[in-house]
User: What shape does this take?
Amino acid sequence: MSKTAILEFDGKKYELPVIVGSENEAAIDIEKLRALTGAITLDPGYKNSGSCKSDITFLDGEEGILRYRGYSIEDLADKADFLEVAYLVIFGELPTKAELAQFETDIRKYTLVNEEMKNIIDGFPKTAHPMGVLSALTSALTAFNPKVVNVENDKEMYEAVCKTMGKFLVIATWTYRKMMGYPLNYYDNTKGYVENFMHLMFELPTGPYKASPVVVDALDKLFILHADHEQNCSTSTVRIVGSSHAGLFASISAGVSALWGPLHGGANQAVLEMLEAIQKDGGDAAKYMAKAKDKDDPFRLMGFGHRVYKNFDPRARIIKKAADEVLATLGVDDPILNIAKQLEEAALVDEYFVSRKLYPNVDFYSGIIYRALGIPTDMFTVMFAIGRLPGWIAQWKEMRINKEPIGRPRQIYTGHPLRDFVAMDKR
Ligand code: CMC
Assistant: This one.
């Protein structure tokens, strides 16, 4: 028998359907609530609101579980590579060897970016933040690829996926090349996707470049861990923008902007800046712990806490191990890391952090790895965007295929009631 919930409002009782997900999560379906009662629900920050049904990612914040299409993040990070995971997230199944090879070949068809895009990059100052440039360039791709994708047509959708995967990686690295004043590189179709990232970023015309396999491996893992995270701020943005039937590039460009903020993807940059600031200030981690706990101080310990993980962040566990391996392999001895360790150890036993279930999140460790790999701090959130791209594409595709209605929340108006207009000379 299907479950229902009873709501009593204004002296009347209403029976509302309950939707149960495949992992037994329950949702009270309020789709008809306003029509039945005249009332809406109010949930700032959507802490209790589901915006859609989705087959892509399962996340249990209490248990620290993250799965893409039913596969655990631990298994995927250990046994698959990033393109394989991207295929899984976007198309729903792990690819066969032939499907994966075809996917990579098809992405390579689209790795050339229109040369006129360089004129747009030239218009930015070198000091522009790479996330701002990336959002603008992603949006600009729409101008060079104006055809609207027919989402019902598998071939068109597949091509759009390959095109987005190919071009986004290139323009993401171009934001760095611009910042550094280096010539822009081209994708090398003889190299793998993640290896290409390193080549696009770091190869200079003055000499050959060979990416270390340890580094490529660590990046592959990082991208996998970021590939999707259900209805987070940037993904919800991509879905809501796409729900107006805006194109894929335009929707992803909006997702990049949403990811930029320090409470979301921008946290990885904020973590490193915080650690550097603590170091400059004498390296006293305890002082900053106290600041984070002081209600009169707006300072927050960046890289701690999560909207949904209230036990531990499973991505953080995997990445912590990868960080230790990378640092040991590369022989990195960085004083910033000692500060990170002190903060981590102190927070894990501190009553304030323990009682609020504030644990190190994925961004606490990802920044540490990126720094060890020589990636500048301003590029950290761009790294997150490259990893998150398959998730954005998959969620956009699912939303369109499911024919979801345009996203349009309601509000409770708290402003002035109707007032008479006041003429200019009477104000
Ligand atoms: N440092 C100090 N106090 C904190 C922190 C922190 N990092 N995070 C939360 N709190 C406190 C907060 O002040 C509040 O205390 P009280 O109950 O006494 O008022 C309590 O913990 C609950 O915080 P909240 O802001 O209501 O929790 P939220 O679920 O709305 O926020 C968060 C989640 C991630 C925005 C927040 O924990 C935060 O700002 N963390 C730092 C930024 C960060 O690392 N973000 C990356 C998230 S992981 C990447 C991603 O998936 O986007």
